[in-house]
Amino acid sequence: MSILPHAINPRSFRSVPGAATVILLSTVLFAASCGGAAGPGGRNQGANGRIPVVAAENTWGDIASQIGGKHATVRSLIIDPNADPHLYESNAKDAYSISVAPIVVLNGAGYDDFASKLIGASGRKPIVVSAQRVMGMNAPVQNPHLWYDIEKVPAVALAIEKAFEKVDPKNAPDYKANLQTFDASLKEVSSIIDQIKARYAGQPVAYTERVPQYLLEQAGLKIMTPPGFATAVEDGNDPSPSDAAAMEELITGHKIRLLLYNKQAITPVTQRVRALAQKNGVPVVGITETLPKGETSYQSWQIDQLNAILKALGG
User: Which of 24, 67, 188, 311 is found 20 to 30 A from 173 (Cα to Cα)?
Assistant: First the structure.
């Protein structure tokens, strides 16, 4: 069974808004710039008395919501668990949300450049928390899925907490307490990573894309996917014949213990890889780029995925 694809999925392109959308963007931005401040908190306070926060991805948005607690209303832009985040198209509502938010949380690393452009177009200067900058990752970043870098997530959470303190100093004790609760909850995530590392360090695994790369590396697993294969899939291109053949050999030759499959980027390439793994008895674990429906938090999502990996390796 060949895994060489027959189609190209242009994941790396974002659509440019048409003229009507551009006019609407200009309208909402003008309206935002003319609007008065709400309440004693000024622009930092929304109509419900809470601080409006925008996060480009719901992964960071969930963390911001946990830290902001009752004092914040967080709107995440990329939220659809059934859509490829790389193909997200911003709209007028996104532009307005960013134009009135005193805090904006971005992933960076080229993953959400559209949000940076909306900030620039707004004419405002919100506090921008960039995971890439906080994590100290200089461009270019080969793998932009930074929320899978569990060891560095607390640093981003701390930066978010500091942003809340700056905007709303009177409630700083609440933000500090929420941060402590968040950090403590990550211990269970780290515990499962440690279990995987203790039992299966060095075991070979593969993925269709580099989405969980940081997580797998921290768990001590050996990633076998040909780098060119993963890059091609992420860019929406056909893997080279040699990369496709190498990936096929990993599966048919039972050279990997597990295949991780991005459920949000289904293409002819990844479908063939998954089918080949299933045919050859290689366990397949689905992972996602955004927080899926049914998960109560960033932590529960990571715990469930890690437990699935642990179970599959054990099987």
Answer: 188
Task: Please give the single-letter amino acid code of residue 291.
Answer: L
Q: What is the largest CA-CA distance in the chain?
A: 67
5-19, 97-111, 178-192: segment of lowest average pLDDT = 5-19
pLDDT tens-digit profile of 16-73? 343 333 434 443 444 444 443 333 334 566 668 899 999 999 999 999 999 999 999 9
Give yes or no for a contact between 178 and 66, defined as CB atoms under 8 angstroms apart.
Answer: yes
Which class is 19-186 in CATH?
alpha beta
CA distance 8 to 268: 8
Residues of the chain with CATH 3.40.50.1980: 19-186, 199-314
Q: Which fold has domain 199-314?
A: Rossmann fold (3.40.50)
Question: Using CA atoms, how far apart are residues 261 and 259, in angstroms rounded to an integer?
Answer: 6
In sequence order, the β-bridge partners of residue 262 are: 287
